[in-house]
């Protein structure tokens, strides 16, 4: 068997024609280019031309959904390279099912510059997909692509539009400190494991599309940094309602992350006890911050909670369990449900007209009145804060 070093297509600090790279791919040679300038269009569709100069019979794999499928078994490394024209490992725009590329080995384009379009739609990356530090000057398409292993887009710059709609990230995906110049599309994208959008920002006021984006490990808080990115982009574009919704999702994800903690922080046998302690620590935030207050984005929840308290206390005041006195009492000394609700409202709002009051010797009634007054004062304050936060942005 020939040595892989002899079979590798290796170039450094030189100009390389795209045709040479395509021929090396057909010959199943490992690609190793460092600081090279690629001249011409690197288009995998040329490999399918029956009258062309390339013989790609060994690369073809039948796929019912596609007219042709090219499987590249070798490792492909383009480090700090510059592609002067389009890089296309996908079907043309007008025939989206014409070609599917499958990369069985590592594919690395770290610190490379794509002067033309970079098209990898419907591609499958079975190993590392490395695009750290890349500059995409025009449209970049990873639509419906499958990343079975790690996908690295750290410190990348998408000067054109970034299309990730329908993509599936099966391994860790990192977009740390990446810039989207003209927007991005993450609709129907699925993140199956850890994802990191920390430091991601948008240069323009185009809001990334994120309809039906899915996070499989949502219970671990993996989506926190993604929603922070969308929130910041929405704020800069003036969509404050959308920014508020993203803030709510970000805080919910952060709450889950605090509950889970690092997986390797403790031994497996102690993990349940540690999570129980964390659960007790975050219980106030869970009840008041998320469920009741909605982190300031759900004022209607405070109103519903207040209505429940008023009705429940009103029923109690009308029942034989309560002992009230006042001029509205019936001959039997009991109050109607309407009177009970009236007293409940005045107590909840801490108005207290004095026409109905608890009997001094009945501790249960006095305790319920005191508890309702304190609850009413707290819920009123929460409602005012939530209302002002939600409708006073800008």
TrEMBL record:
UniProt KW Signal keyword: no
The UniProt record lists the keyword Transmembrane: yes
Protein origin, superkingdom: Bacteria
Annotated protein name in UniProt: Ion channel
Pfam families the UniProt entry points to: Ion_trans_2 (PF07885)
Domain Potassium channel: 308-390
TM regions (residue ranges): 300-317, 367-387
Keywords associated with the record: Membrane, Transmembrane, Transmembrane helix
């Amino acid at each position: 068997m020939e040595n892989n070093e002899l079979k590798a297509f290796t170039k450094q600090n030189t100009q390389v024609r795209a045709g040479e790279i395509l021929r090396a791919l057909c010959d199943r040679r490992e690609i190793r280019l460092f600081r090279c300038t690629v001249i011409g269009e690197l288009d995998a569709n040329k490999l399918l031309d029956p009258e062309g100069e390339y013989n790609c019979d060994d690369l073809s794999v039948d796929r019912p959904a596609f007219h042709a499928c090219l499987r590249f078994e070798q490792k492909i490394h383009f480090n700090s390279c510059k592609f002067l024209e389009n890089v296309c490992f996908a079907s043309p725009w007008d025939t989206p099912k014409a070609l599917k590329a499958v990369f069985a080995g590592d594919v690395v384009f770290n610190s490379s510059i794509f002067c033309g379009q970079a098209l990898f739609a419907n591609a499958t990356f079975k190993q590392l997909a490395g695009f750290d530090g890349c500059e995409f000057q025009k449209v970049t398409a990873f639509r419906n692509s499958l990343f079975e292993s790690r996908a690295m887009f750290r410190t990348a710059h998408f000067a054109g539009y970034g299309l990730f709609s329908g993509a599936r990230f099966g391994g860790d995906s990192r977009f740390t400190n990446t810039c989207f110049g003209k927007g991005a599309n993450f609709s129907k994208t699925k993140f199956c494991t850890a994802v990191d959008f920390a430091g991601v920002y948008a240069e323009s006021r185009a809001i990334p599309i994120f309809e039906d984006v899915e996070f499989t490990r949502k219970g671990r808080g993996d989506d926190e940094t993604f929603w922070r990115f969308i929130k910041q982009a929405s704020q800069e574009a003036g969509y404050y309602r959308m920014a508020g919704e993203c803030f709510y999702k970000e805080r919910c994800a952060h709450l889950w992350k605090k509950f889970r903690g690092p997986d390797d922080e403790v031994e497996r046998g102690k993990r349940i006890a540690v999570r129980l302690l964390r659960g007790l620590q975050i219980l106030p935030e869970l009840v008041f911050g998320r469920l009741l207050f909605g982190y300031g984005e759900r004022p209607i929840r405070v109103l519903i909670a207040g209505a429940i308290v008023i009705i429940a206390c009103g029923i109690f005041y009308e029942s034989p369990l309560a002992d009230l006195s006042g001029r509205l009492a019936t001959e039997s000394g009991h109050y109607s449900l309407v009177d009970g609700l009236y007293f409940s409202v005045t107590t909840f709002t801490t108005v207290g007209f004095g026409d109905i009051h608890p009997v001094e010797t009945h501790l249960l009634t006095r305790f319920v009145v005191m508890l309702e007054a304190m609850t009413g004062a707290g819920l009123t304050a929460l409602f005012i804060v939530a209302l002002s936060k939600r409708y006073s942005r800008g």
